[in-house]
Structures are given as structure tokens and as C-alpha cells.
Amino acid sequence: MGHKDRTKSDTRLGLSTLQDISAIILQSHHLSDTLENIVTLVAERAHSEVCSLYLLEEQDDTLVLRATYGLAAGAVGQVRLKIGEGLTGLAVEQRSILAIEEPQNDPRYRYFAGTGEEKFHSFLAIPLFDRNDPLGVMVIQTLERRTFSADETSTLSTIAFQVASIVVNARLLDTIDKQQDQFELPTLTEVDLSDNTEINQLVSNDGSAVLRGKVAYPGVITGPANLIDEELGFSEIYDEHDVDIEHELSHLDEALRKTRIETLYLEKRVADKLTQADAAIFHTHLMILEDRGFIEKLHEQIEAGHCAPYALKKVIRNYLKAFNKMEDAYLRERAADMEDIGRRLLSNLLGQQSNSLQLHHKGILVARRLLPSDMAIIDHDKISGLIIESDETNSHSVIMAKALGIPALIGVKCAMMLIEPDTQLILDANSGCVFLNPNETILDEYFRLEFDRAQEKERLDQLRDVPALTRDGQRIQLRANIGLLSDIDIARRNGAEGVGLYRTEFPYMARSSFPNREDQYQLYRKVIEGFAGAPVTIRTLDIGGDKVLPYFNHPKEDNPFMGWRSVRVSLDHRDIFQTQIEAILMAGVHGPVRLLFPMISNMEEIRTCQQLVADAMTQLQKEKIDFLSDIPIGAMIEVPAAVRLAPHLASEVDFFSLGTNDLIQYMLAADRSNSLVQSYYDPLHPAVLSSLAYLAKVAREKQIDLCLCGEMATDNSYLYVLIGMGIDQFSLSAPYIPHLKDFLSKVSLADAQQVTAEILQMGSSSEIRARLDVVLKNLQL
Question: Exposed (0-12), middle (13-18) or buried (19+): which is 189, by Cβ within 10 Å?
């Protein structure tokens, strides 16, 4: 194949195959059919003679050929290998892509008679994973010797992630199918409040009560209760006799058709209001609505003489029972999706409008479980807070609530039993409390606090558009750390001068697979345009430590914070890394953007990152796609080695970002999340301050920007020392910005420099802290 033909192949594979894979997900949901369609499509688009899928048997370490295009059809189900056996098993064992020319000459090659694979002269294996667990392998083979390009390998890796998602969903449905027949339909009973000791202890004589829950998103709000009373639930559905089976089957099929159309509408609505990642759950809903096993069970119940609504009730309740028996918490929480599907199907069977959840006034929404479609349908402007009985941290409705910035509590027991419509509530999602019908004392206290906060907020709001200046006129730049689209509005309301740190891993964490280049480009573009000309610093993927992706195989490590994380992961997966860099470069045409690489610890890392930027630009030029060609490149200084290398790093990059959260814990060997060593995590430790002062000095001498990104700047005493060192750019949580502007306006840079010079000579944190306490007390701060 010539270069021109190979480029054409890359384009076809990259631009259309992913969309067609998505179409397969929506059109063919029986696992074997879906796998056959995928291998046929991928083989054709990759210009390969073979594409095969091997899946790992559940509860076993055996790989089985489940679908193939190009090998003998009779080999499906017959070819079996252990992990580590043959080249296919080796790819799973090594957890990495394996590409070999003339595979039959490799000593690890394992030949299976009857497959016909002896005539193929190239071999590419890409392992599939479900969260951290191996799932299978996708294998590409060709008749001629062939080296797969980086573009082809990158796109095939993305396809492999999608295939893994399909397999996981299909297996989940199959598991439920096998389990649910073991359970009888549960009996629905009324809850007797008089015998509920826990509730009686919560309610006082005057009818007031305090409920407690887990904070999903912080904030304090007062207002009336809006209840979702589940009037479209199954409790009032009873069986009917002498039904017309053909009529009921036809009625069911029409309801399925309507629900599928409605699901597509909900996906579009959520994607428009939030992001495509938030809307992705409705892909799973559509998959279930078209699952043959699910539909056959409904038909079986109707053919046994039940009416369609009652048949749906039986099937859904058994599915929910099966979900609730699962040990995996993540899978148990997926019961909400099945409940959502059942409720919307029922509403269409009964001829009711499932999108009629209209709130008559703004208030605090109370629900037993908030389903994804509820969050898609309800007017978000009328939701001031959320109280949810179910304890589902990872539910998609909670994720959406966070994206919208709505104060929310989950796991609030007895909420639906105790809270009546329009009940006056105080939702304190900072302390995890809900006050029902609060008495005068509680109301007065919260109203006083609310009044004080409103007064202070009004005063600080006047500083929103005022530049941050010290008392003697030194300009300080205050930018925002963000991770979600909802953070944009919060940052702008608080007067952020752009973004000093955009944590791109949060959109990755909210998805079920790696986002492709177009999805990332659209997301970054929204962020850049949201700040209307103010600079946005985008940090590349920073996973590992305490941040993991459920769909990415991350090895178990004894000390993850000191292990395989951040840029180290990215450089070991350059296809994924370059895809992100390309998306950032593409988004750079929409406003000022800076590209930041995290956890740099040596010169080779930053130079390799720069080469990947050059490669990304070459790729975009080849595709004739516009991009930012002179993007500023920065290194994040968050390990002690980078501090000492600062003079050398400064010759390679355009700016430094100082990550104090990690730097302090690495310098002091004190995990900031470990309560046993919390006292050792000290931003005012002399070694920390001298390192920061050294870095500030290097930045001045090398004339490059230095921006401190971390919580250290949110403390007045720490900030005082930092500006005294000469650091004049900070990026932090946006709500702190007005307070920092207020503080800076009351202090003198000259005085701060003098005090900082003194404390840099001190040998203990206690001395430093005592000196700063005196200074701030004298300033009445």
C-alpha cells in the first residue's frame, strides 16, 4: 500500500469508524451480532484482512475467540488461550499494545490449526479493559508485512475502548438475565411511621426535625420543598384478566418506539445544556430499550396472559432486585437507570406525559432517587437545592447537580416520609443537615448568618471588576482553578482574570471511556470562549495518586503518589497524550491558551512533551485543521527535583506553574490526606519557604512567568509571605478571589518584603508563625 493510500486509510479509520461504531451500539445490541459487525467494520476500514475479538471468560483467566473477520468461522468459540499464552495472551499479560511483523517467527507465537492464520504476516493486538480489570483483546492481521502508523494505532485504541464499553454493558444485561429468575417479585408494603423508632427520634413535639445526609455539593439554602412523588410509579399497577395479547404486544412495541425517541431527545437536551459526557448515560438507556433479551421477557409476560403495564412491572422489579444483589457498588447504582427506563416506558404505556415534571415555584427538590431523565426534564432555574434519600455518590443525577453547582445532600433517610410539599426547609449542605419546619431560634440564626453573608457578599461583589492591588499599588493577578464547565460562571462572578489551572482530568473522570479529539476540542473551546479573551492555562491529563479513571487499567501501587502518575502515564500512552494535545491546539484558535505539563521532574520529560507538541502540529497540518502554532508551554513545579532544575527548565519553557499542594507533601514526606501525619504538612516549614523563594528568584532572573496554583494562597498569612517573595500571580478556587482582593488592598508590598526577608532567616515554623501572627494582628487582619 502506497503512502497516499495509507493516508487515505488513516483518514477513513479516524473520521468515520467511531461514528459507525456508535451506530452499531444503537442498532445491534445482541452481543454476538454486535461483535461480528464491529470486526467486519474495523477490518474493512483498517484495510486489514483480519480483525478478531477475544474475550476473557468471567471468573477465569481464559481468552476465547468470540468474533472474527478473516479467520475460519469454525474457530469462533474453539480457540482458547490462557493469559500470557501466545502473542494474544501476551498482550493482556503485559497490558500494552503488541505489534509484530512475521509473527510466526516469534518464539511466543502459538499456532491453532484450522484458523487459517498461518498466511498472515503482521500482527497487532490491543488489550481491552473494564476499569482496571482485563476484558479481552482486539487483534488485527494482514497478508502483507505492515507497520501500523501512530495514527492508526491511536484510533484503533480508541475503538478498543468503545468495544470494551459495549462488552461490559452487554455482559451486565446478561448477568441480570441470569440472576433475576432467582428472585420473586417483591411485595410492596406501606411503612408504618408509628413503629419507626428512628423517625420518631428525629421529630420533635412541635413538628420540627433535623435530618442528616452526605454532602454531594456544598452550600446553604432556605426555601420550600418541591417533592417528586413518583406518581408515575408501579405501585398502583395491577394485573388484568382476559387481555387481548396481540393488542398488548402492539401497545408495548409502540411504547418502546416512543421511549426510544424520547431517549434521543433527552440525550440532545442534556448535551446542549451541559456536555456530551453528561448525556452519555442515555446511550446506555437506548441500548437497554433495544436489547433483545429485555424485549423478549416483556413479550413472554404478555403472552402468559398479563397486560403490558403489569408485564413491565414484573420485569423491571426483577431487574432491580438483581441489581440490588450485586456486590459492586457501582453496578448497584446502575439500578437507577433501569428504574428510569421502566418509569418512562410505563408513562408511554399509560398515555401520560413523562416530561411533565413541572415545578410551580423555585425551591428545594426532594426525591427518593433522582433519575437522569428527571434532571434532563426539570427546569434547573427552579432548583435551589437537592435532598435525595438514596446514597448514590456516582449517580448521573448527582454528577449533573455538581455540574450545575446546586447544593445537594444524598443519603438523607426518611426524607420522603417526613417532608410534606411546601415545607419550609433549611438545607445546610456544608454541615450535612436539613432542618424541617425550623423553630424561631434556628430560623433567626440562619437568617442572621444569611444576612451577614449577603452584606459581606455585596461588599465583596463591588471588587469583582476591580484589579487586585496592594496598598502601595503593586498589581497582583488572581486567576481561577477550574475542572467543570459549571466553574466558568462561578469564576467570572468572582472576578477571576482567566484560568490559571484547568484540570482536564475531571471531564475524563465523568465518562465511561476516553473522550475523542473532537469531544475534547468542543469542551476546551467552551471553556476558552467562556472567558472571553482572558488567558486559559490547560493542564494535560493528571491521573494517578488519588485520581483514577474507572475505564483505565492502573496498576496497584504501594505508594501511588510516588509512582506511575501524571505526565509519566501520559508519556507511556502517547497516542492518548497526543490526541489531547491536538485538541488543545485546535481550541487555541478561539482565544489565548497556554499548555501546561504536570509533575515534570527531569529535562527529558519536558523535551519529549515538546516533541509531542511538534508531532501534534504536524498531524493537524496534514489534516488541514486550524490550530494555535505559537502556544506558550509551561512546566508544573510540584516535585523537589523540579525546583532544583528550575534554571535549566526555564530555558525550555515559557512559564512555570507552582503546585504547592503536591510540592509540600513531597518535600516534607507528609501525605496531606493522611490524618496521622497531618501536623507534618506545614506550608510555613522553613524548607518549603526557602524553596519557594528560590523558585521566585529564578523566575525573575530568567524573566518567565511564575503562577502559584494551590490552596496555600487562600490563607492570609501564607499569601502575605508569598507576595513578599515576589510572586504576583495566583490561581485558586474562585470564591476566594474577592476575599484576597480585599486583603491585598490593606497590606503594603514593601512591608511584606521586609517581613519575608526576616522569616526566611528563621529555622522553625513556630517562630515564623508567631512573627506573622503579630504582623497581621497589628494590621487588624
Answer: exposed
